[in-house]
Each structure stands twice: as C-alpha cells, then as structure tokens.
Request: fold
Amino acid sequence: MPEKSTTPDLVELVRSAFAAASRGDVDALMAFYAPDAVTDGTRTIGGTWRGRAAIRGLAEDWRGAYQEVAWVAEEPVHLGNGVVFTVVSQKGRPVGVGGYVQQREGWVSVWVDGLIASLTYYPEADVDEARADAERLAAERG
Reply:
C-alpha cells in the first residue's frame, strides 16, 4: 500500500483560505497564516502588515468596507518550493453603494509547514510580473 504524503496540497490550502475569506470567517482565515507572516500590499493598497494580529486587522477592515464581498482563486499554481501564484478576482458591494466593484490581482504566497509565511499583492496590470517574480522566488528557494 502506498504511503500517504505528509506534504500539504498548497493549491487546496489556497482554495480553502479563499473560501474562509469569502464566507467572512476571519478566524478560519487566520489559521492559514504563520504567527510571523507578512502581507505586502505596497503595490496595491499601500501597506505592509506583519503578524497575525495586523493581518487580521487588515482582513476585518477590508470586509467591513463591503456589504458583500467574495474572492475567487482563478488560477492557483504551486510553482514548487512552497511558492504559489494565484490570479485573484474580487467582487463586492461597498457599504452604502448600490452597485458592485470588481478587480483582479496577482498574489504570490510563500508557504512554510502548511502556513502562509508571506503574501504579496500585485495589481492587475502587473499580473505577468507577479508570475515572473513567483517563478524566480520558487527557483531561488530550491
């Protein structure tokens, strides 16, 4: 009988994290982050958040700005060595607004021991750059 792999399927973990975020379960979302994780939003929303408490605050503030919001991991790809590149679609209805807004981004996540150690957001115009950075990072970590 073949042995069961102890290596987590990072694409499935990414999909599970997105499901938690979309249903508004911040506790479940935070369980995917390492205690000292870093989220780099300098290219998109203009900040860097370090540690679960700071990342939780970002997630709660972002969700709080919307009456409805959902994220979809369109194309998560494990590039090796714990690096995942994901094209992300977000659609939401901001508080007090009747219509919806939507955006696409490239996200590069680095996973260590089944947890997100770092996550970097790239705007839609830079999705190709995000993929190239993710590929380079995966090669460097090899």
Q: What stands out?
A: The chain has a mean pLDDT of 94.
